[in-house]
Amino acid sequence: MKLTRRTLNRTALDRQLLLRRAEMSPVEAIRRLVAVQGQEINAPYFGLWSRLASFTQDDLSDLLYGRHVVRGSLLRGTQHLAAADDYLWLRPIMQACLSRSRQAAFGKATGGVDLGELTALAREHLKGRTLTRPQLRDLLAARWPEVEPLALGWSAQALLPLVHTPPNGIWGTGGATPFTLAEEWIGAPLSAELDVETMIVRYLAAFGPASAKDIQMWSGLTRLREVVERMPLRRYTDEEGRDLYDLPDAELAPEDASAPVRFLPYFDNLVLAYDDRTRMMADEHRRLVCVGAVTNPVILVDGFVAGMWWLTKAGLEIKPFRELPSEVMAEASRMLAFAGQPEAEIRITA
Fold first, then answer.
1. pTM for this structure?
2. Cα–Cα distance, 122 to 185 (Å, whole number)
3. 309 and 297 Cβ atoms separated by less than 8 Å
4. Which of 60, 271, 316, 343 has the fewest CB atoms in 10 Å of its CB?
């Protein structure tokens, strides 16, 4: 069965809770989405606000302080928020991606370092306490003074399951980045099994139908096609003839479903979850949204990216890719109220 781009768009929006704001708790939504991008501190707050009928900053802060949700390196080796019980099985799967990224960035600098010893020493330093990145880096540099301290600190972060402790991850909070051992913070051991099939099932429930390359783009893993091929999944093709996979009982959204205006934050996984991003935006817009390592905040109009936005202390700046409907301004005003800046100026730039 061939699926149109609009069917793929509406189905993705539906599974991402963006066709209508959902009546579910923030932790339920985070589980539904597998993990929420957290490269920028405030991004997951905006992402959840755009998806939930009732959400405040304190809702997510309470989950972080209560250890129900944790922030750490997960998908693609980048910072994500995940339910604590999901972190326990997802983090071991991501180790291959984290190790590969570490080797590419710091392999040469740490060529003379025994990585097993580094991991064990970093674990010992962190046992029973929290350290900032500079503190951990300096402790490791005492053992390897000839090695660039930055390379040692980042290597430990990639090789050990670590989470950031609050106030890191709390709305509007910057400053030092504290680390602690994930298993101690959560109070449970990491999974000993690499359950990649469960990860694929969860991805498809939140982002499907999708190709094997889409799953690889979202996760940062490679060679997943063989895994996908042996799973009992439903198969489709898109308009370009690419193979797509979905859960056998997952429903497709009607392509004529109404899609309201939505503001998505920096690095939102809906934008990053596909190798082929045309289900969400035109190629000429992708080049403006995804610039180097940055994925800018976007505005969805009729389900597709129609502009970008940035919120600063000076106000809200909107850069449209085409003429925007009045609903954009109404949603912008609601977002400013959520952000605590109801009187902020809204500027539309060319």
1. 0.95
2. 16
3. yes
4. 343
